């Protein structure tokens, strides 16, 4: 009976270890995408950071304005940078959770918008893995200061 117990335990650990490694790799990929996105926002490279969005990407801005669809969001961001040439945003993830089936992830953290004044708050994001790449399905920003 002890041999059976240890055999089950051994094979369970062999399956858990690769799954944990995959989750760590997925979390690292999302953190890297977020860091790249922050740098591209600072450069006002909308097409650059839009590569992380799914076609039906949804954003709820800190002022509660909702924009649906990748193309509509590209237009909105380009207009924002045109009318506010000194603005940029930084998102700092504090937690990323990968789903058990490794196809969805939840990110939460804080954000700050900087121009002639600063504002910021909390955010959450839903990521979806498509063809091995993590893409944003939705982001929700809440202005708290």
What would your notes on this structure say?
With 145 residues, the chain is an alpha+beta fold. The protein has a single domain, classed as Nuclear Transport Factor 2, Chain: A (Roll). The protein has 3 helices and 6 strands. It has helices at residues 2-42, 46-50, 70-83; strands at residues 53-60, 66-68, 88-98, 104-114, 118-130, 133-143. A 6-stranded mixed β-sheet has the order 2-1-6-5-4-3, with helices on one face.
Instruction: Let me know the number of strands.
Output: 6
Q: Could you say how many structural domains there are in total? A: 1
Determine the N-to-C terminus distance: 61 Å
Q: How many H/I helices?
A: 3
H/E element sequence: HHEEHEEEE
**What kind of sheet is the major sheet?**
6 strands, mixed
Our Rg estimate from Cα atoms comes to 19 Å
CATH architecture classification name = Roll
State the CATH topology.
Nuclear Transport Factor 2, Chain: A
Q: What fraction of residues sit in β-strands?
A: 35-45%
The percent range for helix content is: 40-55%
pLDDT < 50 runs, ≥5 residues: 4-9
Shape by Cα distribution: globular
Overall mean pLDDT score? 90
- Which strand order do you get reading across the main beta sheet? 2-1-6-5-4-3
Please give the CATH class. Alpha Beta
Structural class: alpha+beta
């Amino acid at each position: 009976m002890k041999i059976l117990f240890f055999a089950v335990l051994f094979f369970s650990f062999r399956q858990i270890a690769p799954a944990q490694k995959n989750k760590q790799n997925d979390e690292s990929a999302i953190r890297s995408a977020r860091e790249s996105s922050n740098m591209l926002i600072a450069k006002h490279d909308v097409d650059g950071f839009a590569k992380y969005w799914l076609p039906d990407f949804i954003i709820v801005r800190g002022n509660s304005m909702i924009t649906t669809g990748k193309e509509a969001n590209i237009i909105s961001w380009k207009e924002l940078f045109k009318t506010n040439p000194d603005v940029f945003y930084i998102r700092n993830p504090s937690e990323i959770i990968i789903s058990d089936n490794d196809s969805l992830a939840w990110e939460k953290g804080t954000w700050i918008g900087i121009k002639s004044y600063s504002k910021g708050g909390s955010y959450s994001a839903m990521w979806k893995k498509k063809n091995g790449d993590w893409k944003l399905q939705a982001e929700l920003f809440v202005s708290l200061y």
